[in-house]
Specification:
Layout: H1 11-23, H2 28-35, H3 39-60, H4 70-86, H5 104-132, H6 164-172, E1 178-184, E2 194-200, E3 205-211, E4 222-229, E5 238-243, E6 251-255, E7 265-273, E8 286-291
Antiparallel strand pairs: 1-2, 1-8, 2-3, 3-6, 4-5, 4-7, 7-8
Helix pairs in contact: 1-3, 3-5, 4-5
Length: 293
Amino acid sequence: MSDTGPQNQPDEALVDLLIKQITEGLSPVEQRTLDALDSAVTDTLMRELERAAAAITLAGTAPHTVALPPALQARIEQQAQSLFSESKNLATRTPHQPPPATTAAARASRRSAAAGWFAAAASILLALFGWLRPMRPAVPPAAQMQVAPQPAVVSPEIPAALTPAQERAALLARPEAIKVNLGATKDPAAAGVTGDAVWDPVTQRGFLHFVGLAANDPNVRQYQLWIVDGARDKRYPVDGGVFNVPANSTEVIVPIRAALPVRQAKAFAVTIEKPGGVVVSEQQHVVVLGASS
C-alpha cells in the first residue's frame, strides 16, 4: 500500500515504539498511540522483537567468533538493505483512521508479511552482530590450564626505632660531624657535670650527652641549649631547644633542636631558664660550656 498522507504513521514508527517499550518504556502519550493500533499486528511484532533481542543477547555472550568473509558480508548487507527498503511499503494508517476494508485473508497476509520481514531482519542483525564481533581466544578447559605458582608474599620488616644513643653513634660516624666537650661551670647546679655535644652541619642534627646533670622540675625551671654560630653575631646565639632531666637519671642524651640554621657551630652552652625557655638569655645560670677547636 502507499502512504495516505504526512500524518500517517508507518510501520517503522510502530517498530520504534515497540523497541522503546521493551528498552525504556513509553510515555503516556506514546502508550495511548500504541494502544490505538491493531493489537494483532503489535502483538506479532512484539514477539519477534523479543526473540531478536534474546538472540542478540545470546550472541553477545558467545565465547568466540570467526572473521566474516568479504563475500558473505556483502551479501548480508545487500539483503539487509533490501529488507529495510521493503519495510517502507508495509501497510500504514493513522491511529484515528479505521483500517481500510480488507478481507480476512488480506489482513492475515499483511500480518504474516510484517512478521516474516521482521524475523528475517532480526536474523540478519544477529548474523552481522555475531560475525562482526571482535575475535576473542577460546578459553581452554580448566584441566589444560597451567596456573603459575604465586610467589609468597613477604611483608617487609619495619626497622625498630633507634634509641637516642644509637642515633648519636650513627651521627658521630659521619665525617662532617663535630664533637665538642662540655665542662661544668662554677654555677652550684653544675657540680660534677660532664658531657659533650655532637653536631652535623650538613643534616643540621645533633645530640647533647650528659653525665651527672641534676634533675629538674619542669614546672619550676628547664634547661636550655644555646649554639654560638660563627656566621652570626655572638651576642645572639641560636636557641637549641629546652629539655628536662628526669629524676634518678645519671646519664641523659638529648636531641638538639636548633631554631635557626647553624652554619659554623663555634660553641655550646646550657643555661637554666624559666619553663618554656626564653628568647634571649641573661646567662645568669650557665651550667655547662664548651667551644670547638
